[in-house]
Structure formats: C-alpha cells, structure tokens
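INTERNAL AUDIT FORM
Audit reference: QA-55
Scope: verify that the stored structure record matches its stored sequence.
Auditor: D.O.
Record contents follow.
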Amino acid sequence: MQKIVECVPNFSEGRDLEKIERIVNVFRAKENIKLLDYSSDKDHNRMVVTAIGEPETMKNCIIEAVGVAIETIDLTKQKGQHPRLGAVDVIPFIPIKGMTIEEADTLAKEVGKAVSEKYRLPVYFYEKSASAEHRQNLAAIRKGEFEGLVEKMKLPEWKPDSGPEERHPTAGATVIGARMPLIAFNVNLHTSNFEIADKIAKKVRHTGGGLRYCKAMGIDLKEQGLMQVSMNLTDYTKTSIYQAVEMIRFEAQRYGVSVAGCELIGLLPLQAVVDTTSYYLGLEGFSTKQILETHLME
C-alpha cells in the first residue's frame, strides 16, 4: 500500500511576498508531492504550508524548505503577533494513508536529525515524538520565543534533542514531531481591546479550564482593526469547531462584543464540516454519505 504523509510546516514570514514565494516554490512541481494550500498573514507575520506526499520525497522536500527559510528569514529583524521560536517554527508530520503514527514519528526524527546536521540548527521533538513529557506541548517549548532561547538552552531540561546546544543566530530553533490532524481556526471579534480577546482565549483554552482539546491565544489584528482568538483544536472529534465558536460568542457577550467572522487556516477533515453543519442547521442523522462529492471519490 502506498504511504502518504501530510506535513504542515509553519514559517515565520507573512509579509514579504518574495520570501514567501521562494519558500512555497520548494513544494511546487515536485514528483510525489502535492501542495494543497498555503496561507500567510501580515499581523501574525507567519505562513502555513500544507502538503501531502510519499514519506521519502516529503523528507527531502522539507529539508530543502528549511534551508531556503534559513537563507531568507532573519528573526533578529522579524516581529509579529504570533509567538515563534524559529524561522521554521514548527514542522508536524501527520499520517494520512498507509502509515502509522509510529512511522510518522520515525520520519519526523529523521528530518530533525538531517536539518540539525546540515544547517547547524537546534531541533526539539514534540507531541508523539517528544523525548520527555514536558516537551509534548508546543507552547511549553516555544515559551520565551526566539529572544529568550539563548538563556533557555542553558537549562539542562531544555537542551535540544538534536543539533547544537546554542541558538542559531538568525533562525533560532525548530520544533518537529508527529501528531494527529488538528484544525487551526480563528474567531475575529468586533473590538480594539486586546485585553478582552486575551481574557476570552484564557477562558476557552484547556489550560484555563476551558475546552479539553483547545489551545487559544489573543491576537491583535491591527490592519483590520479587530481582535482575534486564535485556536488550535487538537482533537476535533472531542472538541468541535461549533463548541469553540459558541463558547467564544458566549464569553464575548459579557463584554458587549460580537463575533466579526471566522477564519480557517489550512485544511480540515470533512467530518468536522459535517459536525458543524449538523449543529447549526439542526440536521438529524446527517453524515458524509449525504454529500454528493464523497461518492465521486469512491
């Protein structure tokens, strides 16, 4: 059976179109690689690429993309609303077809070893690839960001899993690992008060006593004059999109704030769309079998 892996690398560049195109071009016109999506945001100053392909081809493609990112992104000059540890901030590998999470983990570690050796880049392994429990959560590894990395790496508990034990001068460090699919989903709010978005994010996320499989933070969308609750839903079957949206809407009402709109970053599973449609339309027993296009793919 053919093995297919999805990779969703996050790059710390969302403003310079020339740099964005240089990175994305690595994923174009590659045999056994399909570029599914890429999106960038000026406020976040971040780009997310989604690609699928055969494991060995994907491995080589990601190694090349990391090299291009290191050449083009200088974190000493980069600022944005989204936290970042490296020029290539995080590289998750997700098993899609004919692969186990253990095989995705093996691939992640092979890529981590390769980029650390080739580019003298410190690498941390997270999620299913984590070497210790305190390294499973991306937010914990990223805490302190690029600017705090020099001091953080001096601590024994934050020694990199692969590569040099000092920060790359312009590219920081990279976090790599295997994980199951997640949904990157944002809710924009009609307010210019960051404190409101921050308080709502803290209420919604799991660490604040909110939804179990939700990570959230407040973001200031200066160009749009809005605030945002930016989320990662790490298990959409247990924390759904509609649960997150409705909880944000409920919390926002306390401050007299309304939802301005929602934003999907990258791709999401069809079942997540079905679940959300069922909830908002009140459809009983609705399933993927009732979607025409699913029969065309059989």
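Auditor finding: record pair retrieved intact. DSSP finds nine helices and eleven strands in the chain.
Action required: none
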